[in-house]
Amino acid sequence: MHLAESRPYIPALMTAATTGISVPNLPAEIPFPHRHLLGIQELSPDEIGYLLDLSNAYAEHNRARGDKLDLMRNKTLINLFFEDSTRTRTSFELAGMRLGADVINIAVANSSIKKGETIIDTAMTLNAMHADALAVRHSNAGAVKLLSEKVNCAVINGGDGSHEHPTQALLDALTIRRHKGHLQGLLVALCGDVAHSRVARSNIYLLQTMGARVRVIAPPTLIPPAMERLGVEVFHDMRAGLEDCDIVMMLRLQRERMEGSFVPSVHEYFKFYGLDYDKLQHAKPDALIMHPGPMNRGVEIDSDVADDIDRSLIREQVEMGVAVRMACLDVLTRKRQADTP
Predict the structure, then answer these.
(1) Which of 287, 300, 302, 319 has the most CB atoms less than 10 A away?
(2) pLDDT, tens digit, for every residue of 112-137?
(3) What torsion do the CA atoms of 92, 159, 295, 91 make, to the nearest 10 degrees?
(4) DSSP state of 221
(5) Measured between alpha carbons, how far is 171 from 315 in angstroms, rounded to an integer?
(6) Number of C-alpha atoms within 13 angstroms, CB side, residue 295?
(7) Which pLDDT belongs to residue 10?
């Protein structure tokens, strides 16, 4: 069993004499050596465990309607989203505000970026603003990493092309762990558009790092070549793939990233790969249902299944997203402050 799973650090909320408000009781040393959060693949089990433990503390703080924190007081978070987003951008915005940060949302559609400014020029402009943290979403894989190499602040990848979406994988893992108590040994099925999904890639990295087994279920046209090299089990029959699964995570059919015809029709797709109770009965009786959102009801998932109050974790995933992003912003800005001479 991984160290992060066997001996979890669960911070308690306490009153800090310096601020007079509730803050997580953290170790003096931050067990997270990274300047940025660009992907899950670069993280160790203990680093993932630390982020999940801290995120859990923030989740409890938020549920208890705890005081607004001032861990990012006098610090600035900039949300720079080159792709349209409501859920993730709003989640980062709320996370920053709950930590006491000044939050700026840059509307790329109305910015100089749309007028031909390069990403390097954008980085130079952001450096001049002296931001402390930058949450970035971009349609091209690797663009967030390039930006991180040119700016002075901490950068969090809010999704880059079909590459990675680390905070989504962390919030999914936190949601699972809060219900199952652990990740080690669980059998998780990722179903749907795996080929175009950064969520699938980050979840595969995280779940396997933490000792879970992963299956991917999709038509051959939506499975990347040589998928087995990532250590996952590949199924094209959804009922067979769901056998004995603990978690069923549906993926959005990302038609905006598709060039050409990947599925015959939406109706045909739902018939074979949409989650309904008939297919779900092949998973374990206590299997839980997830979806990163936004959902296409009647395409990836039946409405009755999505709204099942006993088995669906979809709304809780949104809640955990704020807690995870609070933890990531907290860790990266505290580390940046500690590393600044």
Answers:
(1) 300
(2) 565 557 788 888 888 899 999 999 99
(3) 0
(4) G
(5) 12
(6) 24
(7) 42
| Residues of the chain by 3-state class (helix, strand, coil), percent to 5 | 40, 15, 40
Question: How buried is residue 228: exposed, middle or buried, by Cβ count under 10 Å (0-12/13-18/19+)?
Answer: exposed
Which residues pair with residue 164 across a beta bridge? 160
Nearest Cα neighbor of 201 from 239, 231, 235 is 231
| Residue in 128, 201, 219 with CA at minimum distance from that of residue 160 | 201
CA–CA distance, 207 with 184 (Å, rounded to integer): 8
How many C-beta atoms lie closer than 10 Å to residue 154's C-beta? 25
What span, in angstroms and rounded, lies between the C-alpha atoms of 290 and 195?
18
Task: Label the pairing between strands 76-81 and 133-138.
Answer: parallel
If residue 201 lies in a helix (H) or strand (E), which one and from where to where?
helix 198-209
Strand, helix or coil at 21?
Answer: coil
Closest listed residue to residue 79, CA positions, set 64, 62, 92, 66 = 92
Residue for token digits 């859990």?
56
Place of tokens 């595969």: 204
Rounded to whole angstroms, the Cα distance separating 159 from 231 reads: 23
The dihedral through the CA atoms of 273, 276, 277, 280 has a sign that is positive
CA dist 87 and 116 (Å) reads 27
The C-alpha atoms of residue 285 and residue 245 are separated, in whole angstroms, by 9
Assess whether pLDDT exceeds 50 at residue 23.
no
d(CA 51, CA 168): 13
In sign, the C-alpha dihedral spanning 17, 156, 178, 9 is: negative
Asked if residue 290 lies in contact with residue 172, where contact means CB atoms within 8 angstroms, the answer is: yes
pLDDT band at 337 (very low <50, low <70, confident <90, very high): confident
- Alpha-carbon span 32 to 43, nearest angstrom: 9
Give the Cα separation of 185 and 163 in Å (integer).
26
> What token pair was written down for 247?
């978690």
Phi, psi of 279 (to 5 degrees): -75, -35
